[in-house]
């Protein structure tokens, strides 16, 4: 079974995708990490994230980088959303994600274009959302716990800028797939959001089984 989980920054999609992977015993890929690794490589080599050729050169990153907790930094998220708008960067990372989705036993992937581009035939598609203020509150608390001194207003401004960039780019913008179920986590605890996600996956599975006769 392939499960696609998409949504904007700090909506809770990673938390839900990890929980679904545990529940169904499937491998999980946080595709945002790939764009963050490109961003970190651009910064490390003092390249220009706005220049497509510079960003493409950074797609050849060392896989060990994916385990680096520094990838979660806010600044890297910001640069990731700049490099991810380049069509050639998306093309460079495409096959790797498609291969992950095509594993024999299935997989859970989370990102921005999983249900639309990476796994359009996924068995279940979720679009996870929450209001910008609630997402900023969660991300601010998370960054604070890791020693960041960013203010709530700075985090909210970053979330809004990322939403704007991610949903208006020409290639693979952040948008719910037509056949995705929307899950608004604004007023749900993590436990309630995960349970709702499992219910939605089960409903999608049942629909698919009924359609197959
Ligand atoms: N339903 C929820 N209620 C409260 N906090 C939540 C909920 N879901 C997730 N969180 C918390 O919000 C923060 C962001 O969640 P998460 O990392 O899952 O979001 P994300 O959409 O994957 O973000 P990103 O796209 O930036 O990777 C985390 O600290 C997480 O523990
Ligand atoms: N499938 C994806 C995943 C991520 N991005 C871009 O990367 C940025 C960082 O992603 P996080 O999920 O780790 O926050 C994000 O803002 C997107 O610009 C993407 O384009 N496609």
From TrEMBL:
Listed name of the protein: Cytidylate kinase
Domain of life per record: Bacteria
Enzyme class: transferase
EC code: 2.7.4.25
Organism field: Sphingomonas lycopersici
Alphabetized HAMAP family for the sequence: Cytidyl_kinase_type1
Binding site for ATP: 7-15
GO molecular function: ATP binding; dCMP kinase activity
Catalytic activity entry: CMP + ATP = CDP + ADP; dCMP + ATP = dCDP + ADP
InterPro entries membership: Cytidylate_kin (IPR003136), Cytidylate_kinase_dom (IPR011994), P-loop_NTPase (IPR027417)
Keywords carried by this UniProt record: ATP-binding, Cytoplasm, Kinase, Nucleotide-binding, Transferase
GO CC list: cytoplasm
A Pfam match: Cytidylate_kin
């Amino acid at each position: 079974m392939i499960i696609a989980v998409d949504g904007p920054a700090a909506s809770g999609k990673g938390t839900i995708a990890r929980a679904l992977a545990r529940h169904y015993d499937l491998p999980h890929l946080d595709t945002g990490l790939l764009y963050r690794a490109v961003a970190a490589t651009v910064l490390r080599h003092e390249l220009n994230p706005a220049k497509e050729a510079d960003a493409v050169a950074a797609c050849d990153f060392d896989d060990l980088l994916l385990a680096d907790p520094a990838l979660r930094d806010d600044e890297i998220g910001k640069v990731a959303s700049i490099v991810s708008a380049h069509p050639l960067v998306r093309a460079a990372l495409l096959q790797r994600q498609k291969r992950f989705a095509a594993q024999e036993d299935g997989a859970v992937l989370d990102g921005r274009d999983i249900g639309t581009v990476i796994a359009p035939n996924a068995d279940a598609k979720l679009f996870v959302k929450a209001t910008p203020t609630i997402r900023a509150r969660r991300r601010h608390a998370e960054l604070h716990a890791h020693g960041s001194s960013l203010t709530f207003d700075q985090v909210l401004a970053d979330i809004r800028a990322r939403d704007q960039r991610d949903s208006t780019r020409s290639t693979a913008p952040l948008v719910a797939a037509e056949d995705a179920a929307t899950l608004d986590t604004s007023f749900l605890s993590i436990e309630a959001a995960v349970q709702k996600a499992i219910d939605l996956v089960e409903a999608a599975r049942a629909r698919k089984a009924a359609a197959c006769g």
